[in-house]
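not sure who needs this but someone in the group chat was asking about Acyl carrier protein from Streptomyces yunnanensis so here u go. i didnt clean anything up, its just raw.
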Amino acid sequence: MDPVYDHLVTLLTDKFEVDAKEIRPDITLAALELDSLAVVELYVTLQEHWGIPLDEDDSAAELTLEQVAQAVTTQLSADGAPADRGGAPR
């Protein structure tokens, strides 16, 4: 299991009230009906949780969940932090 993807799914269902049946790796944030403010809030939440910077721009809503999770994982790798640290913020 990918802890970053799992955390993303939890955020989407708990905080953004996305129906869990709609969530899959290849769906975009826009297809989940997250507006631009919700996308920004999602990115800020991910940044705060993992303690990493993320680039959020106008095209972020067109990213798939897998791409968002990969961006977080890439930043964690660049930062030298393990992605499976149990979700504890730094």
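also The radius of gyration is 12 Å. if thats useful
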